[in-house]
Design brief:
By secondary structure, the chain is of the alpha+beta class. The protein has helices spanning about 10-25, 75-85, 105-110, 120-135, 140-150, 160-170, 170-180, 190-200, 205-220, 230-245, 250-255, 295-305, and strands at about 30, 50-55, 60, 70, 155-160, 205, 260-265, 270-275, 280-285, 285. The protein contains twelve helices and ten strands. The structure holds glutamine.
């Protein structure tokens, strides 16, 4: 044993097969989200996983080309685009500390004067959506267009039934938005912010689409066409916040098991970044208590454990 377990180049096909086997071993664990009724229709046994390397190779296993509701995975893109358009100003209205509370919690907002802890809990994502709306005039459209361009999938779109279902059952998000507005931390009307937030959360995309769209973070801010979306320093910062806050109050456990920056969503997707190497996305609709996919965490855990390749 050399004591240096990291291989120079990874055999992604073999790793994906092993990761899929680890995901299959979780069959039956966790529950499909149903607080947004349209999400309850997801196939609980579906599983897919994809890898896009920084040199343009693409690998997939299982249902990797099947679209699902990306939900909070969209928050990675809304933050990246807000930073790309507006620079550091975004950080004036949202923090960068783990919340230690559920993703839809209201409690900290009261004591912390309407400044959400981080951009990946719902409160923080509402502020980011608001800033992206001010910067672009169409926050959801900006996220959708970016995903379409990077994935090369012109059919990628918001699922209007999911967006409507979110809006109909969105009392908690509406409460968060009104509370933030009462502290003067929204620039646009609450209704506008909520509409755009629901519309980007309700985008349907596959693991394939998401790894292609997320690979700019593996390239330290550079898109597939070679242009720069953000500075290397900003990409480092987004990855840092993904690591510490991207999987809500399970971010510590996710770092412990997977060791990568990652963003989860209640549709069951998790997009993770191997900086300098690849973007990886796993999807399975059954969620644990924190709202993270049981199968996707198991698959990503297997991938980094077997390859010895994480950020640590
Ligand atoms: N749109 C969802 C919500 O607002 C996103 C939550 C999530 O994926 N964690 O509740």
């Amino acid at each position: 044993m050399s004591g240096v377990p990291v291989e120079e180049s990874l055999d992604y096909r073999r790793l994906l097969d092993a990761a899929a086997a680890a995901a299959r071993a979780t069959t039956g664990q966790g529950r499909v989200a149903d607080y947004i009724p349209a999400l309850a229709a997801a196939d609980p046994e579906a599983f897919g996983m994809a890898v896009a390397t920084v040199d343009g190779e693409l690998y997939g296993v299982g249902d990797w080309e099947r679209p699902f509701s990306i939900q909070s995975v969209s928050k990675l893109f809304s933050l990246a685009l807000a930073l790309a358009h507006g620079g550091d100003g975004v950080w004036g209205g949202v923090g960068r500390e783990p919340s230690g509370n559920p993703f839809n919690s209201l409690v900290q907002l009261e004591t912390e004067h309407g400044i959400p802890r981080n951009p990946f809990i719902n409160a923080g994502a509402l502020v980011v959506t608001d800033r992206l709306q001010s910067l672009t005039g169409d926050a959801a459209g900006a996220v959708r267009e970016f995903l379409r361009r990077e994935s090369g999938n012109p059919l990628l779109d918001t699922d209007p039934a999911v967006a409507a279902s979110e809006a109909e059952h969105g009392h908690r998000n509406a409460a968060l938005a009104h509370f933030i507005a009462s502290h003067g931390n929204l620039q646009n009307p609450v209704e506008t912010v909520l509409d755009h937030y629901y519309a980007h959360c309700a985008i349907a995309a596959s693991c394939r689409d998401l790894v292609l769209a997320g690979s700019f973070l593996a390239r330290y801010g550079v898109r597939a066409d070679g242009t720069r979306l953000m500075t290397r320093s900003e990409a480092k910062r987004v990855n840092a916040v993904l690591l510490t806050c991207g999987t809500y109050d399970a971010a510590g456990e996710f770092a412990f098991r997977v060791g990568l920056p990652g963003k989860s969503g209640v549709g069951g997707g998790i997009l993770a970044i191997l900086p300098g190497r690849a973007a990886v996305c796993a999807w399975g609709p059954r969620l644990d208590q924190a709202g993270n996919s049981v199968a996707a965490v198991a698959a990503l855990d297997a991938l980094t454990t077997l390859s010895g390749c994480s950020i640590f």
